[in-house]
Design a protein that fits this description.
Length: 297
């Protein structure tokens, strides 16, 4: 063993010691060694080159850089390669969750999987609670129809949506609700409101908005419509009401109806007043017919 061999072995021992202490170590690239030691030196330099590449990959992965490609033919890094693949897939899943997809589930990262899945379940419960609150804020509890708050918000939307015109407004008012409440009780009165809602629901044939806007008052908003279709809407409701009265023995159902048509947003309020006025005229007509029928009886 010559002096170059001795000096190299000392440098190699120091390089290995630095590696064990996690210090960066460069290949030694020695010259002038004996043939046997030169083969060892070349293999050690290949190992140092490989370890530097492995450290670069591991450092990038530890810093969250999932774009760093792993060294080729580095089977010792297979667990880190699998972790990188899992984290890439998890990143995609997290992006899906951020976009609102709460059907994601992780089953490949041990304890983290359980924490991730618990988070998804908590988000689902939170969404369900928010959906319920939103539903209750927009719907009438008794009939399941939209409530006045939502109806008013839709009117505001239509005031800034000329592409939805012409818009027809129908107002429906249940006749005799106070009398039913006074004589048969509020439970029967609630049933009358529910039955009236079911009858009125026979009117819409598309994406019309149907809302309960008062105790005994309902409204239907129809977009991109005309007088012919509005008249057909009234006919369907009146036909359904007559069919109910023929079947029902407890009480007769009477609903006063009125419509208005707004060709442009500026005419929407006038259409509402027109529908309301027409509904009251229909109510008076029904009262006169009812009084005349009673006299004839």
């Amino acid at each position: 063993m010559n002096k170059e061999d001795q000096r190299y072995l000392a440098e190699a021992a120091d390089a290995i010691d630095r590696l064990l202490k996690a210090h960066p170590t460069k290949p030694l690239r020695p010259t002038g060694l004996t043939a046997e030691l030169q083969i060892f030196a070349e293999q050690l330099d290949r190992l140092l080159d490989a370890l530097a590449a492995w450290q670069k990959f591991a450092t990038a992965l530890g810093n969250g850089n999932l774009r760093q490609d792993p060294p080729s033919r580095a089977h010792l890094l297979d667990p880190l390669k699998q972790l990188q693949s899992n984290l890439r897939h998890l990143t995609w899943q997290t992006q899906r969750v951020a976009a609102g997809d709460l059907e994601q589930r992780v089953d490949f990262l041990g304890d983290f999987s359980r924490a991730f899945n618990q988070m998804i379940e908590a988000l689902r419960e939170k969404r369900a609670a928010e959906d319920k609150i939103r539903y209750l804020s927009e719907h009438d509890a008794l009939t399941g129809l939209y409530n006045r708050t939502f109806f008013e918000s839709e009117l505001e939307r239509l005031r800034a949506a000329p592409e939805d015109y012409p818009v027809s407004v129908m107002i429906a008012d249940v006749d005799g609700l106070k009398s039913i409440n006074d004589t048969l009780g509020h439970q029967v009165g609630d049933l009358l409101i529910q039955k009236s809602a079911q009858i009125i629901q026979h009117g819409p044939s598309g994406d019309e908005l149907l809302a309960r806007i008062g105790g005994d008052e309902f409204a239907i908003l129809s977009c991109r419509t005309d007088e012919t279709r509005t008249a057909a809407l009234l006919t369907r409701i009146r036909t359904a009401m007559e069919g109910f009265d023929r079947r029902e023995s407890m009480f007769r159902l009477s609903i006063s109806l009125g419509t208005g048509l707004a060709p442009v947003p500026a005419a929407l309020d006038a259409a509402l007043h027109q529908a309301d006025r027409a509904m009251y005229e229909d109510k008076l007509r029904r009262k006169r017919l009812g009084a005349r029928a009673a006299l004839e009886y």
